Amino acid sequence: PIPPLHEAIKQNQVEVVTNLLQQSDIDCNKIDIHGKSPLHYAAENNCTELCDLLLLQKGIKVDIVGRDSPLCHAIKNGHIDICEKLINSKVININFLNRKKRTAVHIAVESSKPEILKLLLSKGAKRNTKDHYNRTPLYYCLKYSDLDKKKCFLLLLEFEDQNDKVDVTTLDGNGDSALHWAIRDGSEFMVKRLLDLNANSNAQNKDGMTPVLDAAKRGSVKILKMLKEKNCNFEQLNNDNRGVLHIISLSKSQIGIHYLLENFDIDVIIKDKKGKTALHYAIEEYKPSFAHKLVIACSYCRTDDDFNNPIHIAAKKGMSSLVEQLTSQSRNAVDKQNKNNETPLHIAVKRDDANICRILVKKKAKFDIKDKDGKTALQLAVEKNCEQTVKEILNKAGERELSNTNNKTILHVAAQKGFLNCYKILIKKELNLCWLKDDDKKLPLEMAFMMRHAEVFCLLLKNMSSDGKIDEDIHIVQYFRTALEENI
C-alpha cells in the first residue's frame, strides 16, 4: 500500500500532510512501490504549498532518485513554479544525473520545455554533459523537432556563458554527430546553424554514414547544397561500400541525382558489397529518370553479384524505355547471361512482356541461348502460352534455334501443354518441325495424343497429312494401333 504521507500529498491534503510531518517517526524521503518519494508526488502534481513544506524538512533529499528525480518529474509535466522552487533550494545539485545519466537539461530539451531550460541555464546547468548513450542535450533538440525544440536548440547555442559553450562536434555512442541528427530530421534551419558553428561535416558514424550520405538518403537537395558550400567530401563510402549515388538511388527523392550528376564528378561505376552500382538500384526502385541520367554517365554493362546487368533488371521491372536506351548503348550487353544463364530476353518472356521482347528482338538478341534448364526464350514463351511474345520471337527465330537439351522442339512443348493458339501461330510459321522427334523418339503428334489434347492433335494431324508422309510412316501407324488397343 502507498504510505499515508505519499497518499495525502497525492490528494493535495495540506492539513493532513502538515500533521504527518510533525510525527517524529515520519520518513519524508521514503520511496514507495512506484519508485516515488513524497517530493516526487508534490512535484508531479504541481502542489506548490506542499513542495514548500517538504523543502523545509530537515534532511530532505531534493536529488533523491526512484525512477527519476523530483525535478525531472516537474520538468516533464511543465510545472515551472515547482522547478523554480527545487532549483532554488540550497540542497539541490542542478547537474545531478538520473539512472540514464541524463541531467535536468536533457529532460527539459527532450520534453520541449524552453522556459524551464532557460531557467536551468540561468542557474548554471551544464550544456555538454553526456548521457548513457554519449549524447549531450543538443541531440534531443534534433529529433522530431517542433517549435519548442527549436527554441531549446537556440537557447543551447546562444545562451551567454563563457565557461560553458555548447560543443557541436561531439559524437554519440553510434558515432553520430548533432549534424547527422539534424539532417535526418530534415531541419534545414538547424543544419545551417550547426554548419555555421563548424560542426564536423565529414564525420563518419559506425555504419560509415556521413552527413552527405544522410542528406542523400533523405533526398534533400537544399541540405546537399549547404554541404557543398562547406566543401564536404561527396566521395566517401559507407561500410557497405555505397556512395552518395547509391544512397540517393535507394531514397525517396526524385530529383537529387540530377543535382549530384550536374555538380560533382562522382565515380558512377563503384560497386557496393552486393556488386551493384547506383544504376542497378535506380532501376530496382523504379526511378527511370535517375536511371536515364546514370546510363549517360556510367558503365551500363556492369553486373551485380548475380551477374545481372542493368538490362536484366530493367527487363525484370518492365521498364521498356530504359531497356531501349540501354540496348542502344551496347549491343554486347543484350545477350549477357546471369547466374541462371538467363539473358534479358528470358526475363522479358517470364514477365510476358511483348513490348520489351520486341525491343530486344529488334536489337538482334540471340534466340539460341539456353538457360540453366536448357530452355530458350521461345520455349519459355510457348510453355507459358504467351502468344504475343511467341509472335515477336518467331519473327526472327530460325529452326536451328527451336530445340532444347532434350531435343524437344517448341511443337513438342506446345503439344504437351495443349496450347492451341500457340500451335496455330507456330503452324502458320510453316516451320518443318512436325517430323522432328525428341530423345524418346516421339513426334509432337504423339505427344498431343498421349496428353489427350484433341484440338492440338487434330491440327497437327491435318498439317502432317497435307504432304502424304503420314501414311508412309510405319512407326506412327503402329503407335496409334497399339495406343487404341490399350484404350489410351
UniProtKB/TrEMBL annotation:
Gene3D superfamilies: Ankyrin repeat-containing domain. ANK repeats lie at residues 34-67, 100-132, 174-206, 207-239, 340-372. This is Uncharacterized protein. Keywords: ANK repeat, Repeat. The keyword DNA damage does not apply. PANTHER family: ANKYRIN REPEAT-CONTAINING (PTHR24123), PROTEIN HOS4 (PTHR24123:SF33). The keyword Nucleus does not apply.
